[in-house]
Amino acid sequence: MSRTPRPNRTDAGEEPGRVRLDKWLWAARFYKTRALAAEMIDKGRVWVNGQPAKAARAPRPGDVIRMRTGDVERTVVVKALSAVRGPAPQAALLYEETAESIEARQRHAELRRLAPEPALAYTQGRPTKRDRRELERWRTRGAAPGWNARWSASLDD
């Protein structure tokens, strides 16, 4: 039983030499999965040449792509096309990040470094049983006697 060789399969309706935008973003390592890249495109977080992008759009060398990855916005110029996800040094050859984008990312990183996460300021979590007992003692002892009686809103007085 002989098998006939199958031709190289591309995505449905995709011409050889053309790459979908979601696939290129995945191959260039901007997003971890192709599905995540497509989701970001659908949410309107990716723009090509100043226009909202669609996942099936084919980027061309020279296109300017603006995208959000996390809370950082990047602007890159497409240098080459690839539908295959390779190692990071190879992926870096597919694009060139603009100087403004690099500067904005560095500024954002510096702001994150100088203003740490507020949740990290907490040194401990829930109060222990001992802490709760001390709080209760403080509440009952610290209140002035008859505080509620002095400031009643009743009409009987």
| Mean pLDDT figure | 84
Helix and strand element order: HHEEEEHEHHH
Tally of strands: 5
Biggest beta sheet attributes:
5 strands, antiparallel
Rg, nearest Å:
29 Å
- Spatial arrangement of strands, main beta sheet: 2-1-3-4-5
Query: What is the CA-CA span between the terminal residues?
Result: 105 Å
Beta content comes to: 5-15%
**Continuous helix count:** 6
- Main structural class: alpha+beta
Oligomerization state of this entry?
Answer: single chain
Question: Unreliable segments (pLDDT under 50, ≥5 consecutive)?
Answer: 6-10
Overall shape: elongated
Instruction: Kindly state the percentage of residues in helix.
Output: 25-40%
How are the secondary structure elements laid out?
Blueprint: H1 21-27, H2 34-42, E1 46-48, E2 51-52, E3 64-69, E4 72-78, H3 88-92, E5 95-97, H4 99-114, H5 129-142, H6 147-150
Antiparallel strand pairs: 1-2, 1-3, 3-4, 4-5
Helix pairs in contact: 1-2
Description:
The protein has 157 residues and is of the alpha+beta class. The chain has six helices and five strands, in the order H-H-E-E-E-E-H-E-H-H-H. The protein has helices at residues 21-27, 34-42, 88-92, 99-114, 129-142, 147-150, and strands at 46-48, 51-52, 64-69, 72-78, 95-97. It has a five-stranded antiparallel sheet with strand order 2-1-3-4-5. Helix 1 crosses helix 2. The longest helix is centred in the C-terminal third of the chain and has 16 residues, at 99-114. The termini are far apart.
